[in-house]
Design a protein that fits this description.
alpha/beta; Rossmann fold; 4-stranded parallel β-sheet; 3 domains; 5-stranded parallel β-sheet
Length: 375
């Protein structure tokens, strides 16, 4: 349900209605920070039906223009209501996405399937996909990938999912991604933008697809920024040992974090816990397991005892003495006013920068008078 809301609410011109209880409304509303509407089903409506409540909300929205999307939650699903028979018009999107249907990514895909985006062969440029309002880096990722495409002279097509609603029906034939956990499946996929090696390969393919493109400035930036990263990490390793790490995130971000830490810091990746199922056939050299249960997360953290934890506010309290970097919600106890990326060159720079600073701060804290010795 939350994934479906994050997908559809990203399009301007779609009014998203959460058909369920107040809790089903407030969780996605808080997480994605976009306007949503709710039916707020009450106890008596669970018994006698919620069709009048849904019709009332749709009626209030029908005069505002744009499309209406109704996302069903656990209550109407368990009740067995035929929501399609209640809806007054053919132009209303219906997404059956109760919480028990799967992870956030499952709802996101269900919403895209209902939206049914189309490729326009005449549309120039390349789509950007992998964008979800639930991702704390989505705004920064869009800005960073757009910047790199402009450097190469490649126009941006449709952004899935942060664009005008009508643009979903006029997507470009080619697509690059920021987070493969939220792949749109629209057009020919040319590659991702997480990490410098992936960026280089993707922009090499873009040059092959766009005869007028020139990615030389992008490649120059990749070379220059990788030199800076290697230099900073070498200086860190001259004074400190490589960190041991446990990572918890969606499969795409978790794999990116593990590869970057291994590549530049020779980190010991003790565990990678993914909140979703990794894509079929994806191989990994790390110990990896689906870990979307807090009991399992706590068990793996106590078992591996890492120096550094990558994850969310769920994992941070389990290892209070470890350095911590947040890359997946919920993220708490931090003021966040800017929109940093995780994709692109700036995303990699920021990620490595935060890792190094956090690890050095931990060492300073452990060396302070009265603190336990640094392991």
């Amino acid at each position: 349900m939350t994934g479906a809301a994050a997908c559809l609410a990203g399009f301007e011109g779609i009014h998203v209605v959460i058909h369920g209880s107040s809790g089903c409304y407030y969780y996605p509303s808080t997480l994605i920070g976009a306007p949503l509407y709710g039916t707020f089903i009450l106890e008596n409506e669970v018994v006698f039906g919620s069709d009048n409540r849904l019709k009332e909300v749709i009626g209030d929205l029908s005069g505002k223009g744009g499309r209406i999307a109704v996302i069903t939650t656990c209550v109407p699903a368990v009740m067995g209501e035929d929501i399609s028979a209640i809806l007054p018009g053919e132009d209303i999107l219906l997404v059956d996405s109760p919480g028990f249907a799967g992870e956030l990514e499952t709802g996101y895909r269900a919403a895209l399937l209902a939206l049914a985006p189309k490729v326009d062969p005449k549309r120039k440029g390349v789509n950007i996909d992998g964008v979800s309002l639930s991702d704390p880096f989505f705004k920064g990722n869009i800005a960073e990938v757009t910047r790199l495409l402009r450097m190469a002279g490649v126009p941006v097509g449709t952004v899935f999912c942060r664009d005008w609603a009508e643009m979903a029906a006029h997507a470009a034939p080619l697509t690059i991604g920021t987070n493969t956990d939220f792949a749109s499946g629209v057009g020919k996929f040319l590659g991702g933008t997480l990490g410098l090696p992936a960026l280089r390969a993707t922009f090499e393919r873009l040059e092959g697809e766009f005869p007028d493109a020139d990615a030389s400035l992008v490649f120059d930036e990749l070379d220059m920024q990788e030199e800076r990263i290697v230099g900073a990490c070498d200086r860190f390793l001259r004074r400190h040992t490589p960190p041991s790490v446990a990572i918890f995130a969606g499969a795409a971000y978790a794999g990116y974090a593990a590869d970057m830490l291994k590549r530049y810091l020779d980190a010991e990746i003790r565990f990678v816990g993914t909140r979703n199922d990794p894509p079929a056939g994806r191989k990994t050299r790390y110990r990896q397991e689906k870990a979307n249960d807090f009991g399992l997360v706590a068990e793996r953290l106590r078992e591996t005892a890492p120096d550094l934890v990558i994850g969310s506010a769920f994992e941070q309290p389990v290892c209070p003495d470890a350095a911590f970097v947040g890359i997946i919600p919920p993220l708490q106890d931090r003021v966040r006013l800017t929109y940093p990326p995780l994709a692109g060159t700036q995303g990699t720079l920021r990620f490595v920068e935060e890792i190094l600073n956090t690890c050095m701060d931990r060492v300073k804290h452990r060396k302070a008078p009265g603190s336990p010795p640094v392991p």
